[in-house]
Amino acid sequence: MFVRDIADREKLSIAYVEKILWTLSRSGIVESVRGPKGGYRLTRPSDQISLGEVMRVLGGIPSEQEICSQFTGNQDTCVHHDDCGLRPVWASITDFVHSVFDKVPISALLTGAIDVKFVHITSKNGSRLPTVAQAAN
Hints:
Blueprint: H1 3-10, H2 14-27, E1 30-33, E2 39-42, H3 51-57, H4 64-70, H5 87-103, H6 106-111
Antiparallel strand pairs: 1-2
Helix pairs in contact: 1-2, 3-5, 4-5
């Protein structure tokens, strides 16, 4: 595929698309093809490349450690660093997001054939946690 075609279709600058493709090329996900009909192509079939693999190459999602280290207030570390009730939630969320991305082949994105089901949140002993009621309008 040509860089200009990708940029036009995704409404991105050519320079930005080139940067993304260069990064994907260095990781071995895509390769450049030289010549008048050159461009970029996947190095493997699209059903063998997960969205998770692409996301990690392009920077991924922040881990719970990155999230917790960003919001430290006036301190070097968060005041709740050693006794944080939210840290396990962030860790579970990032693990879950990574697991979903790892299960989605990019072929599903290309064809629009994706169906993601939500999961129920349970406590450590396996009991279902109460849900938060939504306010009626």
